[in-house]
Design brief:
By secondary structure, the protein is an alpha/beta fold. The chain is built from 14 helices and 13 strands. The chain has a 7-stranded mixed β-sheet with strand order 2-8-7-6-5-3-4, with helices on both faces. The protein has a 4-stranded antiparallel β-sheet with strand order 9-10-13-12. Helix 2 runs parallel beside helix 11. The chain starts with 7 loop residues before the first strand and ends with a helix. The structure holds pyridoxal-5'-phosphate. Pyridoxal-5'-phosphate binds next to helix 3.
């Protein structure tokens, strides 16, 4: 009989709770008013991010969602287009917000992998009538890691290619890098090397790094100046933001090595769940900390699998009617992962 004393929450890496050490750091915040640019800890975090990610400027935001919406405003006009994969987070989760706030439209590509190529972009540009002399250039939007495709890493050579193409055509390239450091852990490529091929990048402190919330928009001084303005417009002008900034700084200074373990745990989880049964398949390879269980060729529904798992103390995320997501994170040990894997495997064996 499996023990049911701990709930193993695999819905997302956002469910992590601040550690005692992080809470202690938060209690040492110095509390100036960021609205008057007087919060020292926020400045310290932004400067640390400039070094860590290799950019001119960094703008602290309350969420990745806000930072992405602000990035859209920095790079578009109302009416202009964003070229991106059909299942990008910005479309799948935040499309309504983007059309309301940014008044942009999405020219989506069904890449099947989440990896937007130069060819995809050229085709997308031609898919609607564009008069280059008169229209605002499209915003190119890529994600790394790619959420919908099970945390796939955006390949460096493709990124490089579309970046140089965007230069040639005067287009802005935004990297939605909520989980960029999971990609760095998976490939050994430094954040600097990824980010130099974008105009703006969003990174989130509240995914695998374990801060309660918070993100940063990275880029040059000109984009950062605009971003500070739009952040204020959108209600993101903060006051004693140091209490959050120190948590995010703590996360960046201490919790990066754990991402490698999270990536490895995703593989361990998939191996145990899949053992000896054929009701479910997963994405072609597990590159970071996400496992997508696909039931499209099975009689099992995503909903009933999630319900049964919950009864056994394992929480999963409903991605679509046939797809269930599990995300590993720092609050789950290898033992937790092994236990969750056994529970899910047992449910499938009995289905
Ligand atoms: C989580 C996530 C966001 C939003 O970040 P929040 O801090 O939760 O608002 C944006 N893009 C991607 C790819 C994400 O995974």
């Amino acid at each position: 009989m499996l023990m049911k004393n701990k709930v193993i929450d695999l819905r997302s890496d956002t469910v992590t709770k601040p550690s005692q050490e992080m809470l202690q750091a938060m209690s040492s915040a110095r509390f100036g008013d960021e609205y008057y640019q007087e919060d020292i800890d926020t400045k310290v975090l932004e400067e640390f991010c400039c070094d860590f990610f290799g950019v001119e400027d960094a703008v602290f935001m309350v969420s990745g969602t806000m930072a992405n919406q602000v990035a859209i405003r920095c790079a578009t006009m109302p009416g202009s287009q964003i070229i991106c994969d059909k299942f990008s987070h910005i479309v799948y989760h935040c499309g309504q917000g983007a059309s309301d706030l940014g008044k942009v439209f999405f020219n989506v590509v069904d890449t099947g992998t989440g990896v937007l190529t130069r060819n995809d972009i050229e085709k997308a540009i031609c898919s609607i009538y564009t008069n280059y002399a008169l229209d605002y250039p499209p915003l190119i939007w890529v994600e790394n890691t790619i959420g919908h495709y099970g945390g796939r890493v955006f390949p460096m050579d493709q990124l490089e290619e579309i970046f140089w193409f965007s230069r040639k055509r005067g287009m802005h390239l935004h990297l939605d890098g909520a989980r960029l450091l999971n990609a760095c852990a998976a490939t050994g490529i430094s954040p600097h090397d990824y980010i130099k091929y974008s105009d703006t990048t969003m990174f989130s402190f509240s995914k695998g790094l374990g801060a309660p919330f918070g993100s940063v928009l990275l880029g040059n001084k000109k984009n950062a100046m605009k971003a500070r303005m739009f952040r204020k417009w959108y209600g993101g002008g903060l006051h004693q933001s140091g209490i959050l900034a120190v948590a995010c700084l703590y996360a960046l200074q201490n919790n990066v090595p754990a991402l490698l373990e999270d990536n490895q745990n995703a593989k361990v989880l998939a191996d145990i769940v899949l053992k000896g049964q054929d009701h479910v398949s997963i994405q072609s390879s597990i590159e970071s900390n996400i496992v997508m269980f696909d039931f499209s060729k099975s009689h099992i529904s995503a909903k009933s699998f999630i319900r049964q798992a919950k009864e056994e103390g394992v929480l999963l995320f409903h991605w679509s009617s046939s797809c269930v997501r599990a995300v590993t994170h720092k609050d789950l040990s290898r033992d937790d992962i092994a236990l969750a894997g056994k529970i899910l495997n047992k449910i499938l064996a009995l289905s």
